[in-house]
Amino acid sequence: MYEPRIIAFLCSWCSYTGADTAGIARMKSPANIRAIRVPCSGRVSPELVMRAFDQGADGVLVLGCHIGECHYDTGNHRAAKRLPILRSLMTFAGLEPERLHLDWVSASEGERFSKIAEEFTGDVRALGPVHWRVNPDRKQVASQMLAASREAIPYPETDCAAKTDAIRKKARELLANNQVSCVIGYEVSRRGRSRPVFVYTPEETGRLVWNPDCTNNLTTYLPARLRPIKGKEPPKPVAVVVKPCDSKAINVMVAENLYRRDQVYALGVACEGIRCPDGNLQTRCVTCQEAVPIVCDTLISGATSSFIPRLSSYAREEIAELQDATPAERLEFWLGHFDRCIRCYACRQACPMCNCPVCLYERDDSTFIGLGIGLNEKRTFHLGRAYHLAGRCVGCNECERACPMNIPIGLLNQKLAEEIEATFDYRAGLTVAPSPVVTILSGEYKEG
Amino acid sequence: MSKSTAPKKRWLISQAELEAWLDGIANARTLIAPRQESGIILYRPVAKSGEIAWHGQTSRSAHGGRPVLSVKEIFFPPTERLFTIQKTGQEIRLKETFPDWETVVFGVRPCDARGVKLLDALFLDTNPVDSFYARRRGNTTLIGLACKELGPTCFCTSVGGAPDDAQDVDIMLYETDGGYLAEAVTEKGRFLIPGGEWKETTASPQQSTYSGQFPVPEKGKWPEHFNDEYWAKMSERCLSCRACAFVCPTCRCFAVRDELVKPGEFERIRCWDSCAGENYRLVAGGHRPRAEKGERLRNRFFCKFFYYPEQYGLGAASACTGCGRCIEVCPVGVDITEVLMHLEKPA
Fold first, then answer.
1. Which residues, at least 6 apart from A10, have a Cβ–Cβ distance to it below 8 Å?
2. Do residue B332 and residue A195 have CB atoms under 8 angstroms apart?
3. Binary contact (A340, B279; C-beta < 8 A)
4. Tell me: the pLDDT tens digits for A46-87?
5. What is the C-alpha separation between A393 and A418, in angstroms, rounded?
6. Nearest to B175 by CA among B18, B7, B2, B52
7. Best mutation site among B30, B36, B38, B42 for testing chain A: the one with the most A CBs within 10 Å?
8. Is A290 exposed, middle or buried, given 0-12, 13-18 or 19+ CB atoms closer than 10 A?
9. Residues 6 or more apart from A26 whose CB is under 8 A from it?
10. Mutate to test the interface with A, among B80, B251, B332 (most CBs of A within 10 A)
11. What angle do the packed helices A375-388 and A46-54 form, to 10 degrees?
């Protein structure tokens, strides 16, 4: 008979002792459970849970102290916020939700431990063996993009000359007054491609442009430029051209103490949408709800603004379509897409929120992921990255745009954004507030 | 632009004949060809000729039909297991697994074929021979397909290649009115061609359209630019991702590591790496000789135009084949042709 392998992360103070109590009282508990003692359920990071599934666990049980009884005050609150979000991410990627369970057991509740363990084991046994871990020799099966049920929207004709002039004028002024050290904006290359440009003198401001191809989220350059370096003068403010979606990233970064708001001068452009190379509106623009930037020191608006919200919500239809599929179908969908990934990290590098000095998934001593460009590693990277962006992703979708392999990464971020909004009534970047599932350990922004 | 003097054997075939021939190949061997997958074109195994993306224009690809990744991935895959290590008690057993199947790659563009040639120089022609690469290379036949004209990001003619250069493939196909002109370039290629069935011809292929050539700085001119301020400036927008290197037909850096498969079993794997990544030159003690992204990006260009010719010579002017993929995938518009033009004529 099939016996599932279950990893149980037990909080040292309550649940582990609770399991002990069950043992001492000679209560029956299933032998399927491999207990791992952790100091607190708040210590159980999503990476640990994902790692357990990556290594072949059939189920993961996380047990902590009852709410209000945490020996570290709020450690179990953290678990209570994080794990349901992780579960919805893994469910979206094809895991059966019943395989991950969070519950509370106190030191005296031996009977409760025994009951939860018994029930959970029964549930997982009923599901049968897990198909999460992928055989590295698996044959390649391609996933097609979801059929776009929505018609492509052609990019509306807009006048960009007025905005270009306004950006140049303001940039010249800021640099001439020595208000900022640099203006980060867009230029058009010799090849005709719009791309980021860094302007340091008033004379160079003629290079700055605005057009419907200004796709990059330029706030991604800010943290490195505004980081104080020991023994050096604090960095001078920087001006940056932002679209409404990009501007939200500034709020998140300020909330996470990466720089102060007064270090950034936002040249906010009223945006009518950005187009794809094929001339249609980008996906993010179809669901965009903001006509003007949320963070903005000077508003750059053209003579006419033709912004019309195209849909009444941020939601992407593909997500609902995927949610209607079976877990096995979702698993195949994502594996088929992740299969193309080459771990070039273009998604991560283009992302303003991916600003860790060294990525957890690229550390040489990382215990969460191997070096290989194999299917297991690729999925771990993408799901891990998506989780780290939960409540932080502002939906600029640059990761998906930057991906040379056309992987619909944005769907993962969007899914978690919807989940966070439903659970916490919170959308990233609308105000200076950190993500509800993120814990910021460093205090205020410090000089030097 | 065949550089050999002996007259080549040529055949005139129709699209239907070509497809039938490819179907035959797919039945007997592994046929890899450009195939559309989720909106992009990649070299992938195909079961029949109908799966081939002939001139597939996708929303993502500017050059009709050019796969996003070069044929490099067939010979030098992103991740490869070199051997497994099994430990039982005191005994340690190493086991190698060699790739061992016959493969035919169809639709190889001249720039990609040249890239394979350039990889040969270090994997095959320089000791020690890389047995994994050698095995794959020996078992593979390349069927080239000439480009009629240069795509928007192509610049092969500027770095010594040509859109109809047949010298690095085994069989070359040229599009003609109502079909293809096939040319056997090597013995290996000749072996694949069905003798009696195809109509021989003496016709010459129509020359492709060459356009947009620009001068590229010679090898000797590079060292003087090493300390230019230009590198820091041009790389400001670089995100330090590795996309340019991974799509490049000649970027060949790899990392090797032993990893745990299951208790008692390890594998030694090697996988693509790139000098653009921040960790590439991290050494013990935490020192990073190329800490600035300008230094890292400079290395990419020096590697192509100075280090490679210096090390492997071969009369190759550079390790760049002008395929233009790095220009197309760069999320922030770093453009290798701009760098070359700048160095040739500093503004």
1. A16, A18, A19, A35, A36, A37, A38, A63
2. yes
3. no
4. 999 999 999 899 999 999 999 999 999 889 999 999 999 999
5. 11
6. B18
7. B38
8. middle
9. none
10. B332
11. 160
Respond yes or no on whether the N-terminal peptide bond of residue B128 is cis (omega within 30° of 0).
yes
* Interface ipTM above 0.95: no
Q: What is the pLDDT of residues A397-406, one digit of tens each?
A: 999 999 999 9
Which range among A131-145, A151-165, A283-297, B307-321 shows the weakest confidence by mean pLDDT? A131-145
Read off the tokens for A134: 């992928």
Q: How far is A165 from chain B (nearest CA, A)?
A: 23
Residues of chain B found within 8 Å of residue A374, distances taken between Cβ atoms: 79
Q: Whose CA is closest to B217, among B203, B228, B209, B201? A: B228
Q: What's residue A390's pLDDT?
A: 94
Asked if B242 and A346 come within 8 Å (Cβ–Cβ), the reply is yes
Determine whether the interchain pair A196/B247 forms a contact, defined as Cβ–Cβ distance below 8 Å.
no
Q: Tell me the C-alpha distance between A171 and A182, whole Å.
A: 9
Residues A75, B247: Cα–Cα separation, whole Å = 45
At B276, list the tokens.
């653009």
Q: How far is CA B185 from CA A420, B29, B149, B165, in A?
A: 61, 20, 21, 11
Residue A21 CA to residue B19 CA, distance in Å, equals 73
CA pair distance A315, A413, nearest whole angstrom: 11
Tokens of A395: 């939906």
Q: Which residue in B79, B267, B323, B330 has the most chain A C-beta atoms within 10 A of its own C-beta, making it the best mutation to test that interface?
A: B79
Q: Catalogue the long-range contacts made by B58-64 (C-beta closer than 8 Å, 24 or more residues apart).
A: B59/A276, B59/A277, B59/A278, B60/A277, B60/A406, B61/B328, B62/A277, B62/B151, B62/B152, B62/B153, B62/B328, B63/B151, B63/B152, B63/B153, B63/B154, B63/B324, B63/B328, B64/B151
Spell out which residues of chain A touch residue B272, defining contact as CB-CB under 8 Å: 342-343, 373
Q: What is the DSSP letter of B303?
A: I
CA distance from start to end of chain B:
34
CB nearest to A372's CB, from B59, B271, B337: B271
The DSSP symbol for B165 reads -
CA distances to A4, A346, A404, A411 from A342, rounded to whole Å, are 33, 10, 9, 19
Decide: residue B16, CB within 10 A, 0-12 exposed, 13-18 middle, 19+ buried.
Answer: exposed
User: In whole angstroms, what is the distance from residue B249 CA to residue B80 CA?
Assistant: 17
What is the CATH number assigned to the segment(s) A6-127?
3.40.50
Beta bridge partners of B255: B271
- Cα torsion B119, B121, B124, B128: sign: negative
Residue with more model confidence, A230 or A96: A96
The secondary structure of A399-419 as a DSSP string is HHHH-TT---THHHHHHHHHH
Which tens digit of pLDDT belongs to each residue from B163-172? Answer: 999 999 999 9
Cβ neighbours of B51 (radius 10 Å) = 15
Q: Do B242 and A191 touch (CB under 8 A)?
A: no
CB pair distance less than 8 Å for B259 and A401: no
The residue among A241, A240, A244, A220 whose CA lies nearest residue A163 is A241
